[in-house]
Amino acid sequence: MRFVQYDEGRLGLLTDDGTGIIDLTDRLGLESEDPLAEYIESDDDASEYADAEADVAVEDAHLGSPIRRPGKVIAAPLNYENHIEEAIADRDITTDEWFSIEDKGYFLKAPSSVVGPDDGIELPFSDRRCDHEVELAFVMGEDVKDVSTEEAWDGIFGYTILLDISVRGDQDRSNRKSYDTFTVIGPAVVTADEIDDPQNLDLELQLNGEVRQSDNTSDMVYTCGNVVQYASIGATVEAGDVITTGTPEGVGALSDGDTIEATIEDVGSMTVDVTERDRTFDDVNVNKDG
């Protein structure tokens, strides 16, 4: 099943051809403003409606993030070998020497940075480089703590596409990646049973029709299960949390008016437009005098 959140808080299933949405909010009596999180915690089974007629066309709906406000967005740094080499060569990407999740752990992104594909990306400054990063992400289906890598896979509800947008600079990583609209999730969460091998999926990002990133998830340094295992050491990873697994090489700067097309095999594709605020970083940087 492929779950979408549309029209400001309604939960639906995509039809098999991907052109229609079967509404679940009324059928299941969902009441939460974050209906997928409510569904995950419930005993409901949406599969009985999977063959129903579409209630609305995708082209007529506003697609938000399938999970509207995850409790945590957990992110793995530098998790593709070719991106590690790219980051070492380009000091704008990272001011640190090479490191991995084993060296420095994961980082967190603000849940308030989460949006859906139809919400778009807003670059906060006209004078700071902001890069695109396409990633395979997933939503947890149950609470886990201190799990093994093998056990971790059973806790995954489903997979999705995530755009991790990053301001380059010396600020803390979580700061630079947590501006509003900097975590684009969508278009759907595909349940884990429909993905044969999440570690063998092609992923691609096109910018204005030009391929910028193209790789396969088999090239990850740490698997999805590895990342869950590490994140759960001494801390509870909760149902509804989003975990994202890092980006391959090809990251690059975004500009006002750009259009991103992000695709992951068996997961889907989404088109996201980019705008830019008319201000510089110095205009709004910390001023202790007011």
TrEMBL record:
Record-stated family: Belongs to the FAH family.
Ranges annotated as spanning the membrane: none
Keyword Transmembrane helix: no
Domain Fumarylacetoacetase-like C-terminal: 72-274
Protein name: 2-keto-4-pentenoate hydratase/2-oxohepta-3-ene-1,7-dioic acid hydratase (Catechol pathway)
A Pfam short name: FAA_hydrolase
InterPro entries: FAH, Fumarylacetoacetase-like_C, Fumarylacetoacetase_C_sf
Keyword terms of this UniProt record: Metal-binding
Keyword Metal-binding: yes
Gene Ontology MF: a single term: metal ion binding
